[in-house]
Amino acid sequence: MQADSAAVFLLGAVFLFLSIGLVILGGSVYRQTLSAASENDELRTAFSYIANQIRRADAGGAVEVGRLAEAPALLLNQDFEGIACVTYLYYWEGSLRELFVEKGSELGPEAGLPLIKLAALDFHMDERGLLAIEAAFNSGGSRRMLLSCRSRRKEAGY
Fold it and tell me: I need a labelling partner for 25 at 20 to 30 A (CA). Which of 14, 41, 107, 128 fits?
């Protein structure tokens, strides 16, 4: 009778340890999935926002890469009711930011509206109008997106 009790106890202990191991493994997989989903959400949100802003402003050389103070920025130039304005998209203090001002305004990068938390953001445009946007995320990943600016292609004869 004692051998049967010991076998049942041993089987219960094995089941308990396997259950605990399964819960720990499941928690680890869940955290990894949640982290990947969060990074993917940051990526899609940041890149979609930037791409839509570029598409909205992509006319007659209105899209250019420049700086706002010491921050690398994407400048989206436009005429707003006869006033030359510029929208800056840039990285400052841990966020993608946007600042819409009259051209020549002396506002600094801290004045922009924080949109999406990022670890870094940079812009590069070649002579053909191919814009490279590189973003690093707080989770440690980084990605690059390439966009072709139609107005720049036309100016360069492409």
Answer: 41
Degrees (nearest 5) of the Cα angle 119, 125, 127?
A: 170
- Domain membership of residue 69 (yes or no) is yes
First to last CA, the chain: 89
Closest to 97 measured CA to CA, from 126, 128, 60, 69: 69
Q: Which two tokens stand for residue 82?
A: 């006869």
Q: How far is CA 102 from CA 15, 88, 130, 137, in A?
A: 69, 11, 26, 31
* Structural domains of the chain, count: 1
Taking 50 as the threshold, does the pLDDT of residue 6 lie above it?
yes
Distance of CA 70 to the CA centre of its chain: 20
Please write the tens of the pLDDT for every residue from 91-123: 999 999 999 999 988 888 999 999 989 999 999
Adjacent-strand bridge partners of 28:
none
* CB within 8 Å of 70: residues ≥ 6 apart: 109
Residue 12 lies in a domain: no
- Tell me the pTM: 0.73
Report if residue 97 sits inside a domain.
Answer: yes
Segments forming the whole domain that contains residue 90: 41-156
Reading the block at residue 43, the tokens are 């990526």
